[in-house]
Task: structure prediction
Amino acid sequence: MRNILDTIFEHKKDDVASAQRQRPLSELKGRLSTAVAAQDILKILSETRNGSNIIAEIKRRTPFKGDLVEDFDAMQIAKEYADNGAAAISILTDSEFFGGSLDYLEQAKQEVTVPLLRKDFIYTEYQVYESRAFGADFYLLIATSLDKNQLKDLLELGKELGFTALVETHNEKDLEKALYADAKLLGINNRDLTTGKTDLAVSRRLLNQLKGLGGLCLVCESGIHERADIEEFEGLGMHAFLIGESLMKAGSISEKLQELRGHDKTSVSG
Result:
C-alpha cells in the first residue's frame, strides 16, 4: 500500500526532471566553481557552545498538519534563528508538500552566517550538486528511502564536493544502512514518515543500539517540544536537536529558541 513518503518521492521525480531541464548539471557545476566553501558542521556541532545545539527549521507546512505558521516570512525567521543562537538552520526546499523553496536556501546564504541544511527528499546525484550550488553546508539523506549502496554513493559524492550528509534513520534497518555508508552525522527521526506519528522512544531505543560506537555526531529529530526533552537526550548522548514544529508554532520564536537552548528566564534565574 502506498504511503505519503511514497507519494512524495514519486512527485519528486517530476520536480527533479523539471529542475534538470531548467538548470542542467553543467550549469550547477559552473556555480560550484565560485561557491563559498561549506562550513564544517561536524566541527561546529562538536565544539563547546553556550547552550544546546539546536538546528532550527524553517518549515511552512507539513502533509500531516497543514500550515504551521501565519504570515510566513522565511528570511525573517532565518534572521531570528541566527540572532538567537541556533547552531544551524534547516530549510525545507520541497514546495509541493512543505511549502519550501530552493530560493529560501540561496537567500538565507546572503542573510545569515550560520550553517544551512538543505532538507529535502534527495535520491539523485543531481540533487546533491544542486544543494551545494545553492549554498547548503550540509544536506539530508533519508535512509528509509535509499538502499545502502545508493546511500553510500550519495554520501561519498557530498564528501567529494566538500560538504556533509545528515543521514536520517528511524529504525534498526536504517541504522545498519547508515553505518555501512560510514555516516558521521547521524540523525534519529522520532517521526515515522509513512504515518506522521511521533514517538521519542525511537531515539531511546536506537541510542542504545549505538552504545560503544565512537566518531559519530548524533542529531535528535522530531518530537522535541520542551527543554526537559533536550536535557534527557543530551544525557543519553545526543549532540544536537533538529526542531521545527515547536518553533514554528511558538508565540515567540526567539523566546522558544532560547528556552530550548537553556537560556530562558527560568533557567537563568535557577
